[in-house]
Amino acid sequence: xxxxxxxxxxxxxxxxxxxxxxxxxxxxxxxxxxxxxxxxxxxxxxxxxxxxxxxxxxxxxxxxxxxxxxxxxxxxxxxxxxxxxxxxxxxxxxxxxxxxxxxxxxxxxxxxxxxxxxxxxxxxxxxxxxxxxxxxxxxxxxxxxxxxxxx
Length: 151
What we know:
single chain, alpha+beta, Arc Repressor Mutant, subunit A, two-stranded parallel sheet, 5 helices, 17% strand, globular
């Protein structure tokens, strides 16, 4: 992986940039700004992969190292969501069932799933867009585009 830093590239299909924050060997943030930050590099192998994905290449990004600095229960949810294969969809209840040590029968458990998906710092590397009826760490228009790609 490239050196630590901020990288961004514009993708017409999203009508925005994809911006990566990289620390060490991990992606720690992904955002979708309308303009490229002045200090952002444009050359990163993950941006190449995102471009291929947006062009229709199947990629689940499961091998991408991510740094999740969230409360333990939310981190467990996001780690479980990484196991949802490309093109498949689950619901919030199944996401809760997939998460170790989470009470999937309670509203608290389902709320934890929704909170984790909202706080997801690295979409699409944690593919929250594969959870139906749930929020995403990406803007709605971006999550919708990811869902449409995998339909």
